[in-house]
Amino acid sequence: VLVSVVCSPPQNYPLYIRSVPTENELKFHYTVHTSLDVVDEKISAMGKALVDQRELYLGLLYPTEDYKVYGYVTNSKVKFVMVVDSSNTALRDNEIRSMFRKLHNSYTDIMCNPFYNPGDHIHSRAFDNMVNSMMMQVC
């Protein structure tokens, strides 16, 4: 199970959310929204240190019984959240980092599109394909 989300500050509404399988989508929405609070706490706790060291990967935000929630924040304060099944022990920290980098790069490509209005929901076939390939890799 992998849920991928891109959120835009300061309102923290999801610009893109994709989950596999889709049966528990409401549960994932709740998990994502609670994890955004944890992201905000981590950012405020790091404060200036985050800006100085340019570390965008926030690591494991919190584990639940069934899932692990990871976070990433860009320099422009756009938040990425990934929810991964706890039973997936093959997934290492550096693999999660590289998945976030791929998400960030694809998000940057969307922002460079002159027809995209920042703050709109993301409807991009290339972004969907990239997220689907990441999900296939994990599942």
Description:
Belongs to the TRAPP small subunits family. Sedlin subfamily. Pfam families: Sedlin_N (PF04628). This is Trafficking protein particle complex subunit 2-like protein. InterPro entries: Longin-like_dom_sf, Sedlin, TRAPPC2L. Keywords: Cytoplasm, Endoplasmic reticulum, ER-Golgi transport, Golgi apparatus, Transport. The protein is α+β, with helices and mostly antiparallel strands and 139 residues long. It has a single domain, classed as Beta-Lactamase (2-Layer Sandwich). Helices cover 44% and strands 26% of the residues. It has helices at 25-46, 48-53, 93-111, 125-138; strands spanning 2-8, 13-20, 57-63, 67-73, 79-85. Strands 2-1-5-4-3 form a five-stranded antiparallel beta sheet, with helices on both faces. Helix 3 (93-111) packs antiparallel against helix 4 (125-138). It is globular and about 40 Å long. The termini are close together. The mean pLDDT is 83.
